[in-house]
Amino acid sequence: MIITKTIKIKAKEGEYLDITEQVQNCVSDSKLKNGAVTVFVVGSTGAVSTIEYEPGLLKDVPGALEKLAPSNEDYEHNKTWGCDNGYSHVRATLLGPSLTVPIVDEKLTLGTWQQIVFMNFDTRDREREIVLQMMGE
Predict the structure, then answer these.
(1) SS3 sequence of the chain
(2) Which one is the CATH code of 2-136: 3.30.420.40, 3.40.50.2000, 2.120.10.30, 2.60.120.460?
(3) What phi-psi label fits residue 126: left (phi over 0), alpha (psi between -120 and 50 degrees) or beta?
(4) Model-level pTM greater than 0.85?
(5) pLDDT digits (tens, 9 = 90+) for 27-60
(6) Which of 54, 85, 131, 134 has the fewest C-beta atoms under 10 angstroms from its C-beta?
(7) Residue ranges of the chain with pLDDT lower than 70?
């Protein structure tokens, strides 16, 4: 069986949001006992990953990404489109738009300190759709 649901979220510029509960609610509503859920962000300046959603890492991860894709770099994307979010696209590309999580006994298979997080790398607030595609039995 394949079930598709959409979560709509609002994220401020640079905001990381814990969406674990919303994903688990959709899994629970699906009545799937075992399978997998793919979590996919629609858009090219956001990413989905897992982290321990705590204040230290909410500073460390953006700090590390600033070293990998600095916000003050002279990106060709900015020159092409006359915008300022070239680094947003690079960061989203590095982390990726999707994540697959196993479902076992109707629950997401996540570690104790592991949460599913949407990361808005854009230079402005955004409304995003997160598409969940659940497969299983």
Answers:
(1) CEEEEEEEEEECCCCEEECHHHHHHHHHHHCCCCEEEEEEECCCCEEEEEECCCHHHHHHHHHHHHHHCCCCCCCHHHHHHCCCCHHHHHHHHHHCCEEEEEEECCEECCCCCCEEEEEECCCCCEEEEEEEEEEEC
(2) 2.60.120.460
(3) beta
(4) yes
(5) 999 999 999 999 999 999 999 999 999 999 999 9
(6) 54
(7) none
